[in-house]
């Protein structure tokens, strides 16, 4: 049984999509071991509590990054987390944190990386005038929005869109993409060559 950890800071819709997939058996052989928010008032952590999940608030405000990261990693290890999913976690992880879970931290970003990393990616894409945007689930490495790509989904930008309608359609795809990516990683039927993740490899060539 895999133990998922979720880190969030806000709304929590990607967390809810993952939790629904776990409950419905779309992510087999997995449970959510802990949900952690760095913000006490994050709607996502309230939802985790309502669902009876192990929900922790570990405030980050006013704390040096290393100290906060140490507290979060301790809680994840205590709960035996073997795959960590960042779901709207508005903090950069320190290199030390990333090294605690090698190739076991995923993030979702609302653009087709490497386009539009950083904050407000949907607004950036809309303002740039791209005709196609989307979302990316990727491994977390020591650079922002940078690790090897696991799943991407494209979303056309319509002439009738504004940044809100575009963001809403991207979000629908995010919810599907995260479940797909978690399944790929937990099944382990992939290899990463350079930056390229390739699935359907034979067992002799599995892994990173
Ligand atoms: C999503 O757009 C995600 O791609 C980005 O932060 C947002 C989080 O939304 N990293 P939610 O909290 O999962 O609803």
From TrEMBL:
- The UniProt record gives the binding positions of N(1)-(5-phospho-beta-D-ribosyl)glycinamide as 12-14
Gene3D superfamilies (alphabetical): Formyl transferase, N-terminal domain
Q: Name one GO molecular function term.
A: phosphoribosylglycinamide formyltransferase activity
The catalytic activity, as recorded, is: N(1)-(5-phospho-beta-D-ribosyl)glycinamide + (6R)-10-formyltetrahydrofolate = N(2)-formyl-N(1)-(5-phospho-beta-D-ribosyl)glycinamide + (6S)-5,6,7,8-tetrahydrofolate + H(+)
> Can you tell me which residues form the catalytic site?
109
Q: What class of enzyme is it?
A: transferase
| Similarity remark | Belongs to the GART family.
- Task of the protein: Catalyzes the transfer of a formyl group from 10-formyltetrahydrofolate to 5-phospho-ribosyl-glycinamide (GAR), producing 5-phospho-ribosyl-N-formylglycinamide (FGAR) and tetrahydrofolate.
Q: What is this protein called?
A: Phosphoribosylglycinamide formyltransferase
What gene codes for this chain? Answer: purN
């Amino acid at each position: 049984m895999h133990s998922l950890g979720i880190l969030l800071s806000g709304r929590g819709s990607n967390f809810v999509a993952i939790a629904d997939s776990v409950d419905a058996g779309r992510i087999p052989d997995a449970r959510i071991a802990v949900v952690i928010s760095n913000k006490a008032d994050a709607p996502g952590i309230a939802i985790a509590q309502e669902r009876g999940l192990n929900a922790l608030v570990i405030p980050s405000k006013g704390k040096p990054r290393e100290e906060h990261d140490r507290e979060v990693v301790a809680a994840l290890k205590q709960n035996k987390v073997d795959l960590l999913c960042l779901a709207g976690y508005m903090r950069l992880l320190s290199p030390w944190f990333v090294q605690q879970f090698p190739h076991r931290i995923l993030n979702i970003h609302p653009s087709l990386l490497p386009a539009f990393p950083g904050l407000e990616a949907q607004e950036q894409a809309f303002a740039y005038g791209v005709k196609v945007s989307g979302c990316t689930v990727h491994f977390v490495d020591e650079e922002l929005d940078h690790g090897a790509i696991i799943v991407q989904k494209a979303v056309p930008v319509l002439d009738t869109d504004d940044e809100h309608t575009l963001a809403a359609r991207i979000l629908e795809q995010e919810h599907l993409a995260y479940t797909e990516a978690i399944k790929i990683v937990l099944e382990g039927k992939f290899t990463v060559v350079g930056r390229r993740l390739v699935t359907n490899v034979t067992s002799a060539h599995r892994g990173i």
